[in-house]
Automatic annotation (TrEMBL), chain B:
<keyword id="KW-0547">Nucleotide-binding</keyword>
<dbReference type="GO" id="GO:0005524">
    <property type="term" value="F:ATP binding"/>
</dbReference>
<keyword id="KW-0813">Transport</keyword>
<keyword id="KW-0067">ATP-binding</keyword>
<feature type="domain" description="ABC transporter">
    <location>
        <begin position="13"/>
        <end position="246"/>
    </location>
</feature>
<dbReference type="InterPro" id="IPR050153">
    <property type="entry name" value="Metal_Ion_Import_ABC"/>
</dbReference>
<dbReference type="Pfam" id="PF00005">
    <property type="entry name" value="ABC_tran"/>
</dbReference>
<dbReference type="InterPro" id="IPR003439">
    <property type="entry name" value="ABC_transporter-like_ATP-bd"/>
</dbReference>
<dbReference type="InterPro" id="IPR027417">
    <property type="entry name" value="P-loop_NTPase"/>
</dbReference>
<dbReference type="GO" id="GO:0016887">
    <property type="term" value="F:ATP hydrolysis activity"/>
</dbReference>
<dbReference type="InterPro" id="IPR003593">
    <property type="entry name" value="AAA+_ATPase"/>
</dbReference>
<protein>
    <submittedName>
        <fullName>ABC transporter family protein</fullName>
    </submittedName>
</protein>
Length: 272, 253
């Protein structure tokens, strides 16, 4: 690919939106994922990812646009899962595994009853970052702004809550309100990410960048900053690589995250 | 109930008829006691006696079935800002060893929120309190790299970062070796005398209890006896509390 073709490719509006989308998704995933990883919610993204299949199927029955059904039902599912974790003694991994199985089973049964354009529904498994619309970009920017503002105002409380819910409660922090708000934010982020990166890979955006940052950081704020940066940079680099070699975009971004992770593992091994 | 006049100091904690259930099992049964400002009280009893459950219910970390808890004269749900006056060192502190948090960052989390973004003030306040627990040189260490004893001292520093009226220690010395145990007890005692907070601690070391505590509550779901260490830690009482198989470690005083 020569320079001219490059400029041509990245001057296409859909390509620019896709690169911007990759950066925004990577940054949001890195920030929220930092708390997901440390709060032992690593399977949460995976669970809500699978539940989004059910959400889209329900949406198709109700003839809702997929962004609306994803947003609405993922928030409901997310809160429901947290409620189940809190009210049963089964442990979160068990509950999450049950929800994955339940939502896929229900989704598949619903899917078999749907008539008409079923092929579109399957595209949600892999997603398509090139299909990101202007509205998606506006929503992602909005979500990133809300997330950053929330953190600026509550970061010390969020860190304490992540480290020890007991100490947080004794400091008078409204633990339950914060936990449930976090799940709403996470569900919204997943709802916006799923169509771009797909059910199968969405969890990578939440897990790989923070996991990498944790390998190299001892302090919290550098950890958070590095996770967001790795997310954003993987977004750009992945999109460029996918443009040059004509590779699928979402998987390219995840592949870059994976390479950075392996570098982090090497760093960790050599310095400890 | 012991009247206030005996100690001549205000009560920091009043527990009345507190009952806690774990499923069908009554883990804490009708427990009542009172704690006075500046005093050291130990809760002793065998494993499964409901000691940790009692403490967690007092702090509102688990629900109680009936009874009343007043801290600093207020019921738990009306404590508001007064929560800041209560320090707590949990028994088992399980966390991810790679949690990206340094000693300094953890202690700073106890400070008022306004300190968080002011790195100079934050550093000075934290350093001051780390000196008190002899950890001033470890401030940049990740907490996952600390030994059991060091971690307990960091948690003590977390408690001491703001003025407290009461510090509750749930078996602070579990997972600490014998030397660390004595060091921690001496340090706590020294700081307690300097700053005048009251302590309520669960302990298995009856020798340390009789050395540093003013009062002992013997608990086995119910309070079996309470009073000074001399009164309560008699052989007959201990046998009643712990059962006949007790092996009591007698250290030389």
């Amino acid at each position: 690919m020569n320079n001219l073709e490059w400029i041509e490719l990245f001057s296409l509006p859909f390509m620019q939106r896709a690169v911007l989308g990759g950066i925004l998704l990577g940054t949001l995933g890195g920030i929220l994922g930092s708390f997901v990883v440390l709060r032992q919610l690593s399977m949460y993204g995976n669970t809500l990812g699978h539940a989004s299949f059910l959400a889209v199927v329900i949406g198709a029955f109700l003839q809702l646009p997929s962004i609306l059904s994803l947003t609405l039902f993922l928030v409901i599912f997310g809160l429901g899962v947290l409620y189940l974790i809190d009210t049963t003694n089964l442990g979160s991994d068990t509950i999450l595994a049950i929800i994955v199985a339940g939502s896929v089973a229900l989704g598949m049964i619903g899917f078999s009853f749907l008539e008409g354009y079923r092929g579109n529904l399957l595209s949600i498994l892999f997603g398509d970052i090139l299909a990101i619309s202007n509205i998606d970009i506006i929503l992602l920017v909005g979500l990133l702004v809300v997330t950053v503002l929330c953190l600026l105002f509550t970061l010390p409380e969020q860190i304490l809550l992540t480290f020890s819910p007991d100490l947080a409660q004794l400091k008078g922090i409204p633990v339950q309100i914060y936990r449930y708000s976090f799940i709403i934010l996470l569900s919204l982020t997943l709802a916006l990410s799923i169509r771009a990166v797909g059910i199968l890979l969405v969890n990578a955006f939440l897990i790989i960048p923070p996991a990498t940052a944790r390998l190299v950081c001892d302090q919290f704020i550098p950890f958070l900053g590095l996770a967001a940066t790795i997310g954003a940079v993987s977004g750009i680099v992945g999109m460029i690589l996918s443009g040059i070699w004509d590779l699928p975009s979402g998987p390219s971004i995840v592949l870059v995250q994976l390479v950075v992770f392996l570098v982090g593992v090497g760093w960790n091994q050599s310095s400890h | 109930m012991i009247s206030q006049e005996i100690f001549g100091s205000p009560s920091v904690l009043e527990v009345e008829n507190l009952t806690v259930r774990r499923g069908k099992y009554v883990a804490v049964d009708q427990v009542s006691f009172q704690l006075f400002s500046g005093t050291n009280t130990a809760i002793v009893g065998p494993n499964g006696a409901g000691k940790s459950t009692l403490i967690r219910a007092i702090l509102g970390l688990i629900p109680s079935e009936s009874g009343q808890v007043n801290i600093l004269g207020k019921s738990l749900n009306k404590l508001g800002k007064r929560w800041e006056k209560i320090g707590y060192i949990p028994q088992k502190f399980s966390f991810d060893r790679y949690f990206p948090l340094t000693v300094e960052e953890l202690v700073a989390l106890a400070l008022p929120k306004s300190y968080f973004w002011k790195s100079r003030e934050r550093k000075i306040s934290v350093q001051k309190v780390l000196v008190k627990v002899n950890l001033e040189h470890q401030s940049h260490q990740r907490i996952g790299t600390l030994s059991g004893g060091e971690l307990k001292r960091v948690l003590l520093a977390y408690c001491l970062a703001v003025p407290r009226d009461l510090i509750i220690l749930d078996e602070a010395l579990a997972e600490v070796d014998a030397t660390g145990e004595v060091e921690f007890a001496e340090l706590l005692n020294k700081l307690q005398r300097e700053q005048g907070f009251a302590t309520l601690q669960i302990s298995h070391d009856l020798d340390l209890v009789s050395r540093y505590c003013d009062r002992v509550l013997c608990l086995n779901r119910k309070i079996l006896c309470q009073g000074s260490p001399r009164e309560t830690l008699s052989n007959e009482n201990i046998q009643e509390v712990y059962g006949s198989t007790l092996i009591r470690y007698l250290h030389s005083h």
